[in-house]
Amino acid sequence: MSSPEQGRLRAALRSGRFAVTAEIGPPRGADAQAIVGKADLLRDWVDAANITDNQGSHTRLASWAGSILAMRSGVEPVMQLTTRDRNRIALQSDLISAGAVGVPNVLMLSGDHPTFGDHPDAMPVFDLDSVQLIWTARLMRDQGRLLSGKPVRPAPQWLIGAVENPFAPPLRFRAQRMGKKVAAGAEFIQTQFVFDLEIFSRWMGEVTDLGLEKRCGVIAGVGPIRTVRAMEFMQSKVPGIHIPDQVVRRLRGVTSDQVAAEGMALCVETIEALREMTAVAGVHVMAFGQEHVVPELLERAGVPPHTATAPSATAGSNRKDHDAR
Q: Do the bridges between strand 77-82 and strand 105-109 make them parallel or antiparallel, or are there none, so unpaired?
């Protein structure tokens, strides 16, 4: 197992090599093989894989357990941690535990409200918001202290991540909102799905105007749309998704048996465009339930597998370096 200081995602961000992360959705059951099987599909292609934390407010195998299973399978995990389900005691406990078992990356987010999930009457916690949790994680790691002031010895040494949505209104404040997370301690940001490259490019311009890309790696979210019905579900049921009219017309303009292929082509084109943006540190591929397409997407977009990107080959990269601490 690699130490956090030698984690592949951390190394990619530090060197400027185009980083790739993906997602592993834990099962709704005590099935370790569900994690192992997905890890096997991603192992040779990603720097790290997010283990989602009761994604969409649906009860699933815990992110910390999935992270351990992913590490055993040779995939570096990003352990997600939502403020929705835990108070500050439990959040700090989970962060310490992640450090103890060698989880190299943690990602802080608020999480979808329980009303969106399978227990709509569940009591939301939100004792801390996502920015406060990022700050708490940095306090624990860099100063070795809990919020109570008591020491954490030894301090955990994970890489700290957060999420951002460049497409949520009001658009003019989104880069500033990312800035708050960077100031709190975020070292990488994963964004919501990028379907609108024009808005994303404008947001990236604001990010670079603030100099945030020099302090925090921006990893753009991408993913294929399989069916028109899936697109409609994303638009109406998934908070924060923005699909522009030209994408809707493109996917509706082909026969139903061609939508999946067109969705793959659109995703490949998006990855190619994002690779051309020098301030973008990488892509986060969200292909929930279709992890098997991730290698094909990356290969078609010209992103090589790990075996073709030895560390020595990236030392002279002309991409901007990111200080991962």
A: parallel
Point out the residues of the chain with pLDDT beneath 50. Answer: 1-5, 310-325
Backbone φ, ψ for residue 29 (5° rounding)? 170, 165
> Whose structure tokens read 């709509």?
120
CATH number at residue 261: 3.20.20.220
Q: What is the pLDDT of residue 111?
A: 84
Q: Which residues contact 33 (CB under 8 A, 6 or more apart)?
A: none
Look up the domain containing 203 and give its range. Answer: 4-314
- Rounded Cα–Cα distance for residues 48 and 212 (Å): 22
Rounded to whole angstroms, the Cα distance separating 308 from 176 reads: 37
Point out which residues pair with 80 in neighbouring strands: 107
Record the pTM. 0.91
- Domain for residue 322, yes or no? no
Distance of alpha carbon 290 from alpha carbon 288, whole angstroms: 6
Radius of gyration of the chain (CA): 19
